[in-house]
């Protein structure tokens, strides 16, 4: 620490303080959205962040007993190959995911990520059919041709992570 004070007092600045401000560039997605017409559907709020967990009960206890959150019971969703628990937060939810059955996509995720981790984000849309049609036109790959009924009993579709900067995105009709 004394050496860094001496450097600053002597007028010799470290290289990272000599450079001027770094210009902010627009992200690729911002540039795309500026060149295209606005969609006929509306993007809504963040519905939930899904986290794959190797031990569903342990994860639920952590959020309930350690952090004091409201936690739902376990809901099996065999059509999706998962069991879910929702952690209620003030403005959104965390969806805890655990494999249900051998063909569960979460089982494969947990084989690669033994401790678990963030699996996807879910964003609400006002019209999933229009969203799917326009996203297909924009060459965004959908992981299913038709929406499926999700954990909240509403239509959902997943977008390919390679088309979404490495993030698996779930759209849910609000």
How does this model look, in words?
This protein has 174 residues and is α+β, with helices and mostly antiparallel strands. The protein has 6 helices and 9 strands, in the order H-H-H-E-H-E-E-E-E-H-E-H-E-E-E. Strands 1, 2, 3, 4, 5, 6, 7, 8 and 9 form a 9-stranded mixed β-sheet that branches. The longest helix has 11 residues, at 56-66. The radius of gyration is 22 Å and the shape is globular. The model is unreliable at 1-10 and 13-18 (pLDDT under 50).
Gross morphology: globular
Write the element-wise H/E pattern from the N-terminal end onward: HHHEHEEEEHEHEEE
How many beta-strand runs? 9
The overall pLDDT, averaged over residues, is: 86
Beta content comes to 25-35%
C-alpha-based Rg, rounded: 22 Å
Q: In terms of per-residue confidence, which ranges show pLDDT below 50 for 5 or more consecutive residues?
A: 1-10, 13-18
Class of secondary structure makeup: alpha+beta
The major pleated sheet works out as: 9 strands, mixed
How far apart the termini lie comes to 54 Å
Count every helix, treating DSSP H or I runs of 4 or more residues as helices. 6
Helical residue percent? 25-40%
Lay out the secondary structure.
Elements: H1 2-9, H2 15-18, H3 28-35, E1 43-52, H4 56-66, E2 70-71, E3 75-77, E4 82-88, E5 93-99, H5 105-112, E6 117-125, H6 128-137, E7 148-149, E8 155-159, E9 169-173
Parallel strand pairs: 1-5, 6-9
Antiparallel strand pairs: 1-6, 2-4, 3-4, 4-5, 7-8, 8-9
What key phrases describe this protein's structure?
alpha+beta, globular, 9 strands, 9-stranded mixed β-sheet, disordered N terminus, 6 helices, 28% helix, 174 residues
């Amino acid at each position: 620490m004394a050496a860094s004070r001496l450097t600053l007092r002597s007028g010799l600045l470290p290289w990272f303080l000599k450079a001027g401000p770094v210009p902010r560039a627009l992200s690729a997605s911002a540039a795309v959205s500026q060149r295209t017409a606005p969609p006929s559907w509306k993007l809504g709020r963040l519905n939930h962040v899904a986290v794959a967990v190797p031990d569903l009960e342990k994860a639920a206890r952590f959020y309930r007993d350690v952090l004091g959150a409201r936690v739902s019971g376990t809901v099996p969703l065999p059509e999706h190959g998962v069991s879910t628990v929702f952690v209620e937060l003030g403005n959104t939810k965390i969806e805890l995911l655990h494999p249900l059955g051998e063909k569960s996509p979460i089982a494969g995720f947990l084989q690669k990520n033994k401790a678990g981790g963030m699996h996807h984000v879910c964003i609400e849309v006002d019209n999933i059919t229009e969203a799917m049609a326009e996203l297909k036109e924009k060459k965004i790959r959908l992981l299913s041709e038709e929406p499926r009924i999700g954990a909240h009993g509403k239509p959902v579709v997943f977008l390919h992570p390679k088309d979404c900067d490495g993030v698996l995105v779930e759209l849910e009709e609000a």
